[in-house]
Fold this sequence. Notes:
Elements: H1 4-22, H2 37-40, H3 42-48, H4 68-80, H5 86-92, H6 97-108, H7 124-136, H8 146-150, H9 169-180, H10 191-198, H11 201-211
Helix pairs in contact: 4-5, 4-6, 7-11, 9-10, 9-11
Amino acid sequence: MVPSRCFSALLVLGTIFGHAYAQPEPTVPPQRAPDTMEARTLACVGCHGDKGRGVANVYFPRLAGKPAGYLYNQLIAFQEGRRRYAPMNYLLAYLPPAYLKQMADYFAAQSPAPLAVTAPAAPPATIAQGQQIVSKGLPDKKIPACTACHGTALTGREPGIPGLLGLRTDYVSAQLGAWRYGTRTALAPDCMQIVASTLSEPEVAAVSAYLATLPVPQQDKPVAADTTQLPMACGSQNPHAAEAKP
């Protein structure tokens, strides 16, 4: 038998410990992610690198520094199915155009250090042919030089023509092929569809190889919008093409 006083003491202690055990844990305020576009675009980092810097995968291009109008047009094209890549089509399916415009503005404003570019293993004659097409065009086919639209430094032109630097051979070839066969389309008149469908396969290979030899410069901003007459009508340079829909 436990003496009554001991029993009472045990009862009190049990009550105290039981009460202490029953107390709820202190509430920890939930941690909220910063409400910034950098935080919202973290889903893009895995494929396009931090701040759109680019990654080693040849099929995921650098986004940083490209014209906002161009980036917006591409986001809309993925959303509408005019560019076909299932993960992008899925991710963008239900985002409002005004939000896509904010994403485009964010990546256009970034200038992260570029990745090193590994020169492609292409014959010197192929590289030389690509350089000729990029800088001089193909007059006999009425194809202008790439520099005539994308800028003499190939860093792009506002508001809707992208830079062509820091891209791998396979990526450039794949995009020209997509235009050629209609799996990638742009706003009418689709000047790149005309160019890509006119180039021969060896010419596509030459242009792709040459562009892949060119690194991204530290200052890779596109040429400002101006009144320069482009050699071809191009829907992407429509001043209203990059405006978000209401």
